Each structure stands twice: as C-alpha cells, then as structure tokens.
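Supplementary notes for students who missed Thursday's class. We covered one full example, reproduced here. Read the sequence, then the structure, then the short commentary at the end.
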Amino acid sequence: MVGKMLVLALALGTEVYGQQVQRLPLAPRPPTGEPVAPFFEGWYRNTDGTFTFSFGYFNLNLDESLDVPLGPDNFIEPAEFDGMQPTHFPSSPRRDRGVFTVTVPASFEDEEQRVVWTITANDVTYSVPGRVGVDAFQLDYGPRAMGSVPPLVSLEGTEAKGQHPTGLMLDEVRFATVGNPMELTVWASEVSVRAEDDIANRGGVALRLLWFKHQGPYGEVSFEDRSMVLEEGEGEAVTTVTFSEPGDYVLRVRVDNWDANDSTGGDQCCWTNGYVRVQVTE
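Structure (token representation):
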C-alpha cells in the first residue's frame, strides 16, 4: 500500500510531502484504511507585525474516524508551535478548514521559515508546510463582499470574546467523570454590518454551532446536541457532553454564519472557533 516517498507540488507554490498510496488506475477509494492529509489554509498579516497560519485537514476515509495522538505520528515543527493541532479526525465532516491556528514572529516575513504539520495515519505519512509569501494564500480579517465577518463568541466561565479561526481558549480546565453529562454553554453574536439594499441578507442571518472532539484519548465523546442554530443571529446555546474514557480532552465549537451568501468555508470565512479543555476521571 505504501510506496516510495514523493513530493506533491500543489498549486501556487504550496507543497504537501507524503507517501504514495498504490492502487489500480480508476479504482474506487476504499471507505476505510486511508490516511489523513493536513492542509495549510493560508496566512494572515497581523497589525503587530506577526503572522497567523491557519491549518485544516482532510480525512480521506468515508467511514472511518481516526484518533492520532500528539507525538511521533502527529506533530508540528518547530516544536515551539506543537500542541494545538487536532488528534481526532471524524469522517463527517471529512474536510474541515481553519481548525486551529499558529501565530509566528515577524521574522517569518523572510519567506524561508516554515511551520510544518505531519500526520501518520493508517501507515501513510503526510506533511504540509505553512509559510508567508504566497499571495494566493494570504487571508485577511476584513468583511466579505456583502459585509460578513466571523461571529463573536464567548464561553461559559469567561467574559472574553473570540473571533476568527484563532477564536478563544477557555482559561480554566473543566472537570467531568466518565458517563456523566457535563454542560457546555456558548454565547454568540452575528456582528456583520449589512447594506440597506442587501436583499439576500437584510432579514438577518442565523448562526450555526457544531461541536467537535478536538483532542483526547480513544473513546466516544457524545454531545446531546452536537449541532445547534441561533435563528436570531445571537444568543445562548447549551448542550451536554458525555465521555466514555478518562483522560485529557480539548473540545472545539465552530460558530459560523454560512447562511449568508458571502460566507462559506471554501472561501475561508466566516467562522470562529472556541476551545474547552476538560479533564475526565473515572
């Protein structure tokens, strides 16, 4: 299954390093046993001179969710940027954009330094470098054509608000026990400014929330309501989560306004991530 190492030069100067998976020409892709490919979504220029890199992934399996712990099979180099990447890769959604970000110093403007994410899954290794300098991969924080910007998001236990893929991480660690539901509360607000003649969006845009197991040991993480909608474009969304195994977890909630006609994941806008660390005991 695993062939020799190769370098796949993708469009516009971005490279993905990986192993070639051998199969017959035109053979259908099997539903399981496939790898996970890390993706570099693009880079942001920050006002303080630093840069932020956005990363996502593509689970090539149709019917297999994978857990790849942090370590030799799931790491980021340089090591100072390691640790925020996901370890759980669901089969739905298989392609998830802007799952986490890494902020690098201004010296990365030399266009030579890279942040490389490597994943080995089902005996296949893929790596993707993130760097400054490819114009087609430059992202921005500004509004889209019809005014869409990412929602403002806050998590229970903090007054801080997050926006964009970097979002916010809850400072405190939550505690739970195996088999007992733990409540999760999110506040979100649609803050896009719409033109008065915006017929498509002037009636308001709903916010959609989707919870993920971002990091954690093997085992089920079950959300009572994994997907929720704030029809009015703001408000509170409450669900519960139950863990089947003890360990240290990170949960992620993605809040988007993709009902707007200028907001979609494929265009790298507009959503905000929120992260909650949970320590689960027996």
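Commentary. The CA atoms of residues 21 and 222 lie 33 Å apart. Residues 1-14 have pLDDT under 50 and may be disordered. If anything here is unclear, bring it to office hours.
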